[in-house]
């Protein structure tokens, strides 16, 4: 058994990359725990491994004392001196306490430890190999389905796709079907390594356009934002880093071939490609395509960005979309809360009328000032005449008195 164990350790190290030291240390810990549990031994037990013979021994570590209180952890000075004259009180001595049937225990434990280490090594291998594919589009083969997941084989590894959140409504997945999925998560938990994939993530659309449009792949055209309701409709905002290239036309492709390839891959999902603009008014107007927009007004709000969009009355239903889908996707695409209002409910003020009203108001003010000035002059003249009359009457009265 010992020889076979050594050979097994050597094979594991060569084929699985699990070093012998790792397995031996794990077995020591497992055997020590098993011995303490089965034989009621105290915590002073350790396991020794003979690398040449390949066997394990249980060693009890005892402290040299003058008077023994607990034989499991202590040894008298007299007994210690019988072993070696150099021992003193306080020294520790190892005593072999290996049970007769410990070989079978060690073999069973070795099997458990090796299996555990193999699972851990495989999990680490999966995480290391497939973490590079995270957020990337890969092609897999449907293996099986149940009530919760679609199981997809990617290479030699099984990935899971949540039916409720990660599958496109209306799509059916049969065994051996080829399917393109986005790797959303690569990690390990208590159950082992796990790869999660999706068909509904917005980045699925992004990766498909990168494959279909060379200008996106090389960075000439840039995808700025994506809003998606998988299986129904997606809005994608693009801009060009080259003034000579139309980003929308580039993504659509000759006769619409590029965007049509993406639509076909997504089972007929509608895709709106709009041009990104730095001006939020223009960007929101583009995002509401195919509806026409008359004006965009903004409301100051510290908590969220709000925009009021005015559209012609006959375009109102088109701007809102079926069940509010068009305005909902536009809001997610731009990051603004959008309130659609028909033209008939909004009062527009003509700037020329405002200027005329301001001019009339200024004229009225000037007229009022003139009238006020004339009134003041009349009042002054009247006051002067009254004052002259009073002076004359006073003079006549004075003459009468003198006479």
Helix % is 40-55%
**Number of DSSP strands?**
15
Number of domain units:
3
Report the CATH superfamily of the largest domain.
K homology (KH) domain
**What is the molecular shape?**
elongated
Structure commentary:
Pfam families: KH_NusA_1st, KH_NusA_2nd, NusA_N. Belongs to the NusA family. InterPro entries: KH_dom (IPR004087), KH_dom-like_a/b (IPR015946), KH_NusA_2nd (IPR058582), KH_sf_prok-type (IPR009019), NA-bd_OB-fold (IPR012340), NusA_N_sf (IPR036555), TF_NusA (IPR010213), TF_NusA_bacterial (IPR030842). This is Transcription termination/antitermination protein NusA. The protein is built from 13 helices and 15 strands. The protein has 403 residues and is of the alpha/beta class. It folds into three domains: 123 residues, N Utilization Substance Protein A, Chain:P, domain 4 (2-Layer Sandwich); 62 residues, Nucleic acid-binding proteins (OB fold (Dihydrolipoamide Acetyltransferase, E2P)), CATH 2.40.50; 144 residues, K homology (KH) domain (GMP Synthetase, Chain A, domain 3), CATH 3.30.300.20. Strands 5-6-7-9-8 form a five-stranded mixed barrel. Strands 1, 2, 3 and 4 form a four-stranded mixed β-sheet that branches. β8 and β9 form a beta hairpin. The longest helix has 52 residues. The chain starts with a helix and ends with a helix. The C terminus is likely disordered.
């Amino acid at each position: 058994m010992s020889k076979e164990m050594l050979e097994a350790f050597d094979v594991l190290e060569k084929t699985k990359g699990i070093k012998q030291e790792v397995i031996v240390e794990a077995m020591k810990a497992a055997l020590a725990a098993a011995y303490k549990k089965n034989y009621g031994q105290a915590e002073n037990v350790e396991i020794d491994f003979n690398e040449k013979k390949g066997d394990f021994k249980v060693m009890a570590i005892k402290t040299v004392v003058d008077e023994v209180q607990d034989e499991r952890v202590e040894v008298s000075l007299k007994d210690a001196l019988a072993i070696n004259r150099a021992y003193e009180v306080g020294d520790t001595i190892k005593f072999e306490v290996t049970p007769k049937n410990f070989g079978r225990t060690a073999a069973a434990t070795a099997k458990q430890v090796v299996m555990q280490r193999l699972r851990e090594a495989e999990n680490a291998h999966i995480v290391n190999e497939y973490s590079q594919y995270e957020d990337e589009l890969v092609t897999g083969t449907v293996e099986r389905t149940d009530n919760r997941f679609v199981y997809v084989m990617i290479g030699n590894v099984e990935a899971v796709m949540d039916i409720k959140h990660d599958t496109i409504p209306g799509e059916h997945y049969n065994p051996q079907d080829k399917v393109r999925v986005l790797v959303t998560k690569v990690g390990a938990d208590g159950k082992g390594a796990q790869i999660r994939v999706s068909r509904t993530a917005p980045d699925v659309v992004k990766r498909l356009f990168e494959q279909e449009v060379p200008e996106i792949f090389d960075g000439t055209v840039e995808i700025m934002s994506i809003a998606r309701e998988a299986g129904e409709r997606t809005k994608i905002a693009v801009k060009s880093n080259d003034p000579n290239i139309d980003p929308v036309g580039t993504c659509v492709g000759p006769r619409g071939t590029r965007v049509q390839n993406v639509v076909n891959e997504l089972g007929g999902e509608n895709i709106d490609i709009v041009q990104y603009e730095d001006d939020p008014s223009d960007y929101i107007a583009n995002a509401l395509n195919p509806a026409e927009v008359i004006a965009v007004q903004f409301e100051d709000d510290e908590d969220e960005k709000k925009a009021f969009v005015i559209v012609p009355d006959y375009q109102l239903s088109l701007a809102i979309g079926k069940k509010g889908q068009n305005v909902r996707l536009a809001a997610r695409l731009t990051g603004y809360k959008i309130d659609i209002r028909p033209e008939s409910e909004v009062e527009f003020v003509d700037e020329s009328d405002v200027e005329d009203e301001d001019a009339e108001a200024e004229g009225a003010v000037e007229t009022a000032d003139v009238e006020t000035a004339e009134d003041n002059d009349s009042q002054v003249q009247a006051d002067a005449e009254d004052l002259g009359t009073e002076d004359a009457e006073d003079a006549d009265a004075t003459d009468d008195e003198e006479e």
